[in-house]
Amino acid sequence: MSNIITGEKEFFKGIGAIGYEGPESDNPFAFRWYDANKVVAGKTMQEHMRFAVAYWHSFVGNGGDPFGEPTHVHPWDAKADAVERAKDKMDAAFEFITKLGLTYYCFHDVDVVDYTNDIKENERRLNALVEYAKEKQAASGVKLLWGTANLFSHRRYMNGASTNPDFHVLAHGGAQVKAALDATIALGGENYVFWGGREGYMSLLNTNMKREQEHFAKFLHTAKDYARKQGFKGTFFIEPKPCEPTKHQYDYDAATVLGFLQKYDLLNDFKLNLEVNHATLAGHTFQHELQVAADAGLLGSIDANRGDTQNGWDTDQFPNDINEITESMMIILEAGGLQGGGINFDAKIRRNSTDPADLFYAHIGGIDIFARALITADNILQKSDYKKIRTDRYASFDGGKGKEFEEGKLSLEDLRNYAAENGEPATISGKQEYLENLINRFI
Length: 443
What we know:
One of its GO terms (molecular function) is magnesium ion binding. By secondary structure, the protein is of the alpha/beta class.
């Protein structure tokens, strides 16, 4: 592995390239299910899932929480100069990504290099790291799946960025997004994400919700128009989340975002980036959010993680629920796959997982659970009566009066007359338990 990929020093010593060894392997540093070139449902696993490493959790997260100091002390954070320190972090990131054998990464602007309160200095720092990243990408073959700007951590954004009641703050958000878009375009980023972490409200007593949502839409149009003028051909994603840190966020869930995009004429350029833990916080299953997006033709990309049923906040743990992921992969396969995006591990190792190897274990497990789910989902769709059962359940709409209803040919009086003439409907089983057993049988 060349120095341009690993840098002058190796940060994950003693850990080599992670390869596929099959389901019988006991090697914790090997994939048991993910065989990148294995063809499933007409595409390789790599093409289906386009796994990406999250720069923020993996190389910036320090294990700190509101009750305790950091527990992850990164060796790449040692240098005093911000740009040189950021280059070390990028060396570590590309070493990790290439050892995993993955193709993509994702970042927020402030993950790449520490920002100050000086816009020009921030742009200088980010540009320096963009040039360094170009070299790393060229040497490794790793690509940028998407970039984004962190418009929620700095105190100026305590009341939001594009929805802030102070135009001065909104302008700062615009400056940050411009720089992040420039970086994404320069690095050949395939998409760009907006997560409205504080685009919402804490209290309606001091909030003009209508005006804030109009500003949000205007901001998205302005950013989109700028990027298109710069030649950006990729897709813009919005990532729904209902709350936390705000009481209520305007991108609450997939259905809310769909309505927002329709209302403000953004459907042609935007799709959804859906997160498992965000679906849970919205009171939905991840499968529900995927289906809403797929039905609307907006299933763009996903953030893979999970929450904790005993902890009502965004814990961002690595995925490990084979049933949940299998059902999710069935939806993705039936929808024809993700549109432009991939599977980004927006997940962090636990506070007490302090060994460098833990970051590998977490990603290996997350990658394997999706690979196993992909194989299982394809088998269910191809080799079971799953699709037939669901199709048969709606058979009454495939002909006769049911079809006429779908075609808009029946009046309310026609419905009444049909019901009166045909008496009480038969009781027809939904076969839920059978289908749940079917999923487990194929797993």
